Predict the structure.
Amino acid sequence: MDEATRKELTAWLEFYEELGIEGFYRRKPGTAGPAQATPVGVEPRISAAPQAPPAVTVTAKPTSPDFGVRTPDTRRDLRPPAPTFSLFEAAPAPRSGPETLEQIREDLGDCRRCKLAPGRKTIVFGEGNPHAEVVFIGEGPGADEDEQGLPFVGRAGKLLNRMMEAVGLKREDVYICNVVKCRPPGNRTPEKDEVDACSPFLYRQIESIKPRLVCCLGAPAVRTVLGIKEGITKIRGQFYNFGAAKALATVHPAYVLRNPREEKILHEDFEKIRDFLKNP
Ligand code: SF4
């Protein structure tokens, strides 16, 4: 390894170590993932590749107890890919069989992996059916969620409940979580380093649940899960391939609260979810 590469690699490793991440694994050549998502039945037209650290070769280290991703290679890959070097790359699994949500929550612990930790009251891990057919993913907890430790319990949550009820979905039958599990200050959008630190746990939750459909509520969820940066109003209502599942992008209920006339588009997208789930 030449000196310049060695320095660059050292800088990246120090950066990730500050985030509490100590283990890195090289992506297997040819591995595909949902960030290469394309609309179902539509020719790819979106550059879905996520921003990633520079291409470097890293020798795998033993699994760190702090690094969350421990899924076996044999399981369905729902993780977004990164070209060469990925925070999300799975380490060899220390557990036999699929992880449970309880195990993932246990690994998360009293997490301090990103700068959102000091400002939170509660980690909002997620709530719902561990075998749900559909997983809803929002952006991050708000004040009510931070207080109660549950996702989507404020005004946006009430709207989400109403949308689900309108198409015959029960809250207890679905799973609801967020891209980041701690409340960003002032309800701002989660920043990249926060998403990078927290999202491996989200991917593990999705892998554990194995839903048929992942519904991304708003742009941050779409960026994180599908790697798509295009505006949510342009891509909403479309289905994307997502491993063995499908993903649907729609607007965040909080957007509809700010723009009540847009409620119809959220309702339209929930009707698509109902129609999708009707088909075996
Ligand atoms: S947002 Fe996620 S990574 Fe950051 S401290 Fe909270 S649980 Fe940990």
